[in-house]
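Researcher: Let's do a round of design. I'm pasting the structure tokens now; please hold your answer until I've finished.
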């Protein structure tokens, strides 16, 4: 199948999965909408869908529909951490390593970054960069554990990384309660970050201040570009993708499979840790996470939506942030449970994970491509035969 048709198939498959997920959402909205009669429920469902599909970017009311820049800034701000976890999962999944450690990784990265931001004074500008890098490097080092266990002992990286998430969470809760908590506050949190460590807002405008859109969004887009170039323009990225396609072939072709597996999980851990650090210094004043934030689980959905391609991660992250904002608006203005986003994510995951979903359409594209190639070869052979006949006729004359 040609590259163009592969892209077409991926787009059609993605759009159809999203459409099915939204249809399921519509059905659930109708069931949970207020109203005793069918018409009342239908009207309530229409209001809920308006909040879901239009509300995240446009203000609706008696004066009509008006675009609001702050709502866009809210979405861009919300997509920043899940862009990093999406990239992390993309790289790990591309090597056929189903590491689920991005959830604990972003939490650990945020905590380590917070500790550096509180207790290690540095000049402004440098402080935030160093703190975030240290957070990323610590998570990369921790991700060596499931990688080494997989390479040396063939331990399931999925089970190991899932358990690692909870080990990280409870260790951090212990440290936060015993060593780093600000006892003068009514809730469990650290001392405030030093001003030199805070990431500056991207737009210095009071209208956008509530959105907390920082330069972290720009860093996330740079990370997307670097990840895409790494995966599709570097030798290590090629080896990661080859291992994901066929591990045995990669081994016999001379690729150091063990090293590349460890490398892919370390890079994924680094990205998740950086995402946690940027989220913490950009949107919070103190560290107060006492449970897993959920960004890593969303990152898995984003990686599936993007087809493990870093270039498509921003689109998938924007979609998930938009959908999450719409569900929050539905819960506020249309009395629809915000947990609907989890159901929609589950449906999306189901159809993307189903290998046989649209398999006949894919097969028809493969057959069509093969027929075109055979026809092209036959035409080339006929042209060659005619040219030989002309040369033979000329020689006889």
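Researcher: That's everything. Go ahead.
Model: Designed sequence:
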């Amino acid at each position: 199948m040609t590259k163009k048709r592969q892209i077409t198939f991926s787009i059609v498959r993605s759009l159809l999965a999203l459409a099915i997920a939204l249809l399921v959402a519509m059905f659930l909205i109708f069931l949970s909408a207020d109203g005793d009669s069918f018409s009342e429920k239908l009207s309530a469902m229409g209001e809920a869908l308006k909040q879901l599909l239009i509300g995240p970017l446009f203000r609706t009311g008696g004066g009509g529909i008006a675009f609001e820049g702050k709502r866009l800034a809210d979405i861009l701000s919300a997509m920043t951490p899940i862009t990093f976890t999406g990239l992390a999962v993309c790289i790990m999944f591309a090597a056929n390593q189903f590491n689920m450690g991005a959830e604990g990784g972003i939490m650990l990265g945020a905590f380590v970054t917070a500790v550096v931001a509180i207790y290690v004074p540095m000049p402004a500008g440098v402080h935030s960069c160093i703190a975030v890098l240290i957070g990323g490097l610590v998570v990369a080092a921790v991700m060596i554990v499931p990688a080494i266990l997989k390479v040396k002992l063939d331990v399931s990286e999925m089970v190991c990384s899932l358990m690692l998430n909870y080990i990280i969470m409870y260790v951090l809760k212990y440290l936060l309660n015993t060593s780093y908590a600000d006892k003068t506050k009514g809730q469990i949190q650290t001392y405030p970050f030093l001003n030199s460590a805070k990431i500056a807002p991207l737009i210095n405008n009071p209208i956008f201040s509530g959105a907390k859109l920082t330069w972290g969004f720009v860093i996330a887009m740079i990370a997307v570009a670097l990840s895409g170039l790494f995966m599709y323009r570097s030798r290590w990225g090629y080896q990661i993708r080859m291992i994901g396609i066929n591990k045995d072939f990669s081994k016999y072709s001379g690729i150091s499979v063990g090293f590349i597996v460890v490398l892919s999980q370390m890079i994924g851990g680094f990205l998740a840790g950086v995402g946690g650090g940027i989220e913490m210094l950009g949107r919070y004043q103190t560290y107060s996470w006492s449970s897993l934030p959920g960004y890593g689980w969303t990152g898995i959905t984003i990686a599936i939506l993007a087809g493990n391609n870093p270039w498509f991660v921003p689109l998938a992250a924007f979609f998930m942030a938009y959908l999450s904002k719409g569900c929050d608006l539905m819960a506020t203005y249309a009395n629809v449970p915000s947990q609907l986003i989890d159901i929609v994510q589950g449906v999306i995951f189901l159809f993307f994970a189903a290998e046989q979903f649209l398999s006949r359409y894919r097969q028809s594209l493969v057959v069509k491509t093969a027929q075109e190639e055979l026809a092209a070869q036959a035409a080339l052979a006929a042209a060659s035969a005619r040219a030989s006949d002309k040369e033979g006729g000329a020689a006889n004359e």
